[in-house]
Design brief:
14% of the residues lie in helices and 42% in strands. By secondary structure, it is mostly beta strands. It folds into six domains: 141 residues, Immunoglobulin-like (Sandwich), CATH 2.60.40.1930; 127 residues, Sandwich (Immunoglobulin-like); 229 residues, Rossmann fold (3-Layer(aba) Sandwich); 69 residues, no CATH class; 82 residues, Immunoglobulins (Immunoglobulin-like); 78 residues, Immunoglobulins (Immunoglobulin-like). It starts with 5 loop residues before the first helix and ends in a 7-residue tail after the last strand.
Length: 788
């Protein structure tokens, strides 16, 4: 009997297990969950020089970068979601948004011009006005008058005429009724439900509260899967049935919502609470039955006790007990181990809003205020978009402190101004899987702040790390990212206005032209990044062109200074673009370097646009994948910096013709190959970058041990004999392939081994180059041998 080496057998068995496991999903290693976000800050209309008392806008823009789908595990974006809508139905919800009682309003409209035929006499809805015209003009009425004229001793009666043309008017009796807060809240809630209607793994519940609470159950469940049409219709009907009446027991409404979410289910939990007023009731345990809450008697915030009663007046909270009840439940929410994400919406004035904010702070929640129906709609819509997305960077916080030389005129409604600081949340960054299923994508975001210049001088907006966003990244680490600084000059009189462009020429790419367009005659000076003077001359209004060489361009920008005859100075920069790398292959990555805080306005390849409106990263870099043609390729890049000045670069890239055939390798198992196991094949180019576009395999006929490309002529272009592309999990199971799994020049495929013999493998790249190899397999078996 042949003796089997135990170590060799174990190694062989492990290899076969890996091969068998290739069809089974293998969990990826820990990944970096950081979401890349490029940020840009600029002055709208590029007004970096303004006069005292001028206003200008600062624009803040965010460009979340696409995240490859394999970066995240499915449980990171297929998380079930539980949402509770807690809606105030107290009596004041029957008022309008200004706190006035709803009543029928009846009034006359303004008069409108009509034709004479439409005019009706003796009706107070109509009116006509006489306008004096000349005798020869069209007229509707002539009015005669007479007077006496003396001629010697006699008197003569003289007649005069005045001519009038009429303009006819009509007004209308209007009946109107203002919309109540209740109706506005119901419309916003229904639109929120509509956003989530088809969302899988999403449960929604509704609780109304006033003096008491009412939980909306269906079949003894209050958290209902909303992608079920019957559940959806029930939730919409429950919202439609809400009506206003009673006091405001905020704490009790909060507690019912907290109870419904404080469960052991493995889900994201959203607590969305709406009120239009201050709390006026509270619920407590009256243990001594004396009709009032004593210090030793607890609020209703757990399922225990007896003599549950309601306290408060229903109209005020002079003793603060109703407010403290809300704060008490807020602390329960904050302390829950279920990570409840709470949102508190004040549909009210500042007094009620400040009260709700105090409660929200206790819950570590997100406070939002709506002063109109549209504002309320926007808040619910924003939350609906966030919750229905695959995943989000939630509650992104912004802050910037401005120099006292600027007055803060306006800022986003979701933020607040404290002295010279604007701060607050501007929403969430929501990612969804693209149609191709390859990346999670998020829309760009933008907001503006309007400033007014008060004092002349030179300033830096955002200087000293005073401008940043803060958010919790996908890896649960809080990140702070700063915006770039912007130079701003404020003058008593108008400084020169410039537009500057730096571009090389298509025909002579080492030669550059600097074009300075200026609105008045001025002394122009050009410096490099080291403040070395490159040019100094008397500039004229209009275009001033300077020839430059590539050797004069140091760093990522040039400095340009203009000084007019009054001594007013404008300092700006113009970006320099550099191609730092690009491979000599068909599928290449272009890496460009330019001034930080710039926008890549376009990238054209052979006169076809491949990218527009992209932001550079924090180092001024941008990367773009390109598919180059054999031979010469012309790349044109455009960039705009925060001053609105532009750079253009023409760059030629040639690649040699690809005449090299693909290289085919395989993993020839040295042990047994089980019936139906996959045969991994590894195909690569010789480095020219042409991708593999077609692969086939065939089992050779008995006695054949070699094959040529001609043997595959009947298979090329068909679906017969096609090899199957391996997934990354399958590649991970074969360690020898893992280092190359993300290289575009490699293709990993497999075919099923059905029987021993000679197999031929064919590969063709996009350059038309072909190759064939033959693989001998003689160790296939139906099952593992008996080791005993």
């Amino acid at each position: 009997m042949t003796k089997i080496n135990f170590k060799s057998w174990i190694s062989m068995l492990l290899i076969m297990v890996m091969v068998i496991s290739m069809g089974v999903s293998v969990q990826a290693d820990t990944v970096d969950y950081e979401a890349p976000i490029f940020m840009n800050k600029m002055i709208v209309d590029n007004k970096t020089q303004v006069l005292v008392n001028d206003t200008f806008q600062v624009s803040y823009r965010f460009q979340p970068q696409d995240i490859p789908v394999d970066t995240l595990l499915p449980e990171d974006y297929n998380t079930p979601k539980d949402i509770i809508l807690i809606i105030d139905t107290s009596g004041s919800m029957a008022w309008d948004v200004n706190g006035n009682s709803i009543s029928q309003s009846r009034y006359w409209s303004d008069y409108e011009v009509i034709t004479e035929s439409e005019y009706r006499e003796n009706n107070n809805a109509y009116n006509k006005v006489a306008n004096e015209v000349g005798q020869n003009d069209p007229w509707d009425e002539r009015v005669s008058q007479w007077y006496w004229v003396r001629d010697g001793w006699s008197w003569t009666r003289v007649w005069t005429y005045t001519y009038y043309q009429y303009t006819y008017y009509q007004r209308y009796w209007i009946n109107t009724a203002a919309t109540s807060r209740m109706d506005l809240a119901k419309n916003s809630a229904k639109n929120f439900l509509k956003q989530l209607k088809d969302a899988p793994n999403t449960n929604v519940g509704i609780i109304e509260y006033n003096s008491d609470t009412s939980v909306k159950y269906r079949n003894n469940s209050m958290l209902l899967p909303i992608d079920n049409s019957t559940n959806y219709n029930f939730l919409v009907s429950a919202v439609n049935d809400l009506s206003a009446g009673g006091g405001t027991n905020i704490g009790l409404g909060m507690y019912e919502g907290f109870k419904s979410l404080n469960t052991n289910t493995d889900s994201e939990k959203y607590f969305i609470f709406l009120t239009d007023g201050v709390p006026t009731y509270y619920s407590y345990y009256d243990q001594d039955n004396d009709g009032k809450k004593d210090n030793n008697e607890s609020y209703y915030n757990y399922e225990n006790g007896s003599r549950l009663k309601r306290g408060g007046t229903g109209s005020s909270d002079n003793d603060g007990l109703a407010l403290n009840y809300g704060k008490n439940i807020g602390r329960l929410i904050k302390g829950s181990s279920r990570a409840i994400q709470s949102y508190f919406i004040a549909f009210a004035d500042d007094d009620a809003g400040n009260t709700l904010k105090a409660i929200s702070d206790e819950a570590n929640g997100t406070y939002k205020k709506a002063l109109s129906g549209n504002a309320l709609e926007d808040i619910y819509s924003e939350l609906g978009e966030q919750i229905s997305s695959d995943f989000s960077l939630k509650n992104v916080y912004f802050e910037e402190t401005f120099n006292d030389a600027f007055e803060i005129v306006s800022y986003p409604s979701s933020m607040e101004k404290v002295s010279q600081t604007v701060k607050g949340e501007f929403g969430s960054i929501n990612y969804n899987l693209n149609a191709a299923g390859t990346h999670f994508v998020a829309s760009p975001m933008e907001f503006t702040i309007t400033l007014k210049a008060k004092t002349a001088g030179a300033y830096v907006i955002g200087e000293g790390q005073q401008s940043f966003i803060r958010y919790k990244d996908l890896d649960d680490v809080v990140k702070i990212k700063e915006f770039a600084d912007i130079d701003m000059i404020v003058t008593e009189t108008q400084a020169p206005v410039m537009n500057v462009n730096l571009s090389n020429t298509k025909e002579h790419q080492s030669n550059y032209i600097l074009t300075i367009n200026i609105n008045e005659d001025a002394r122009l000076q050009v410096y490099d990044v080291n403040d070395t003077v490159l040019f100094s001359f008397a500039g004229l209004q209009g275009d001033n062109k300077l020839d430059m060489t590539k050797d004069q361009l140091i760093g990522n920008y040039l400095k340009v200074r203009a000084t007019d005859v009054y001594g007013n100075v404008t300092n700006e920069t113009v970006p320099i673009i550099t191609v730092t790398s690009i491979q000599s292959q068909v599928h290449s990555e272009l890496v460009l370097q330019t001034q930080i805080n710039s926008t890549v306005t376009k990238i054209d390849l052979n006169e076809a646009t491949v990218a527009t409106g992209k932001f550079t990263d924090a180092l001024g870099q941008y990367r773009q994948n390109l598919t180059l043609e054999e031979g010469s390729n012309l790349i044109e890049i455009g960039v705009e910096n925060a001053f609105g000045n532009t750079g253009n670069l023409y760059h030629d890239k040639s690649i040699e013709a690809d005449n090299a055939p693909p290289i085919i390798k395989y993993d020839h198992m040295k042990g047994f190959i089980l019936n139906g196991a996959a045969m991994p094949v590894y195909v690569e180019t010789n480095g020219t970058g042409s991708r593999i576009v077609e692969t086939h395999y065939m089992k050779l006929t008995s006695g054949a041990t070699s094959a040529t490309i001609a043997d595959f002529s009947h298979l090329i272009g068909t679906s017969q004999g096609l090899m199957i592309e391996m997934t990354e999990d399958e590649i991970d199971a074969i360690a020898v392939f893992a280092p190359n799994k993300n290289d575009d020049e490699h293709l990993h495929e497999r075919f099923n081994v059905t029987e021993n013999g000679y197999y031929a493998v064919y590969a063709r790249d996009e350059g038309g180059n072909e190759a064939v190899i033959v693989i001998r397999i003689n160790n296939r078996m139906d099952e593992l041998p008996n080791l005993l």
